Amino acid sequence: RTARVGSVWVTSDSTATGRAVWRVPTGSAEQAWRIAGRKLYVTVSARGQVATAPVTAVRQIDLRTGSERLLRPPHGAFDGMLTGVVDGVLVFSGSSGLSMYSLASCRLVGQRPGAVVEGTDPVLRVLYADIAGALTGIDPVTGRNEPGAAAAAPSGVYGVRAGVALGLDPGPDGAAWGCRI
Q1: In what order do the strands lie in the sheet with 9-13?
Q2: Closest-CA residue to 101 (of 52, 58, 50, 44)
Q3: Distance CA 132, CA 161 (A)
Q4: Between β-strands 97-102 and 20-25, what pairing exists: parallel, antiparallel or unpaired?
Q5: Backbone dihedral region of 90: left (phi > 0), alpha (psi from -120 to 50 degrees) or beta?
Q6: What span, in angstroms and rounded, lies between the C-alpha atoms of 23 and 3?
Q7: What is the DSSP letter of 153?
Q8: Which of 2, 17, 43, 150 is a good FRET partner for 114, with 20 to 30 A between their CA atoms?
Q9: Could you report how far apart the first and last alpha carbons of the chain are, in Å?
Q10: CA-based angle 42:122:4, to the nearest 5?
């Protein structure tokens, strides 16, 4: 099966027949989304445009079955825009930095002022952020630095897997690089 995230629907298609197996509406406005494991997380925001309206809920959609669970913060809205999902935590980026919310309770579990998400390592279950110019590994459950998980990596990280950051240098002649964190 393949999943397609459109502006108003998420659809799973059979690779054998090309026909839709299931379809879930996401609303009338385009929403931000992230995939973690076999779950898709789609924001619920009145205006839909990323970072223009408060995110009042997140739809958790099982990519195999299409079953949906609505995640709502206990008070008001999530802080910022959805930028990651790792180790049972929704990560939101805003003007004040990162805010991390438990998937189980939707309660705020951690904050990191001045941090900017660079990526997540699904193998080690670590969130990586640029903090004062250093690529820093953060435990998403506690919001604390992971011991030994920091490096002065170049800008342009596009992924981290099993402790290796991969990226591209900026510009038209940018080289690909990798470094162990």
Answers
A1: 2-5, 9-13, 20-25
A2: 58
A3: 22
A4: unpaired
A5: beta
A6: 9
A7: P
A8: 43
A9: 34
A10: 35
Locate tokens 């049972």: which residue? 88
Alpha helices in 14-173 (DSSP H): none
* β-sheet bridge partners, residue 25: 9
CA dist., res. 113 & res. 94, Å (int): 9
Least confident segment among 87-96, 113-122, 153-162: 153-162
- How many C-beta neighbours within 10 Å does residue 83 have? 21
Beta strands in the chain (DSSP E): 2-5, 9-13, 20-25, 33-36, 39-45, 55-62, 68-71, 81-86, 89-94, 97-102, 108-113, 116-121, 126-131, 134-138, 145-151, 157-161, 164-168, 176-180
d(CA 135, CA 21): 41
What does the block give as tokens for 94?
Answer: 């805003």
Residue 74 amino acid letter = P
Residue 23 CA to residue 13 CA, distance in Å, equals 9
Residue 155's beta-bridge partner residues?
none
Q: How many CA atoms lie within 13 A of 77 on its CB side?
A: 16
Task: Tell me the pLDDT tens digit for each residue of 54-107.
Answer: 899 999 999 888 899 999 999 889 999 999 999 999 999 988 899 999 999 999
Dihedral of CA 135/138/143/146: which sign?
negative
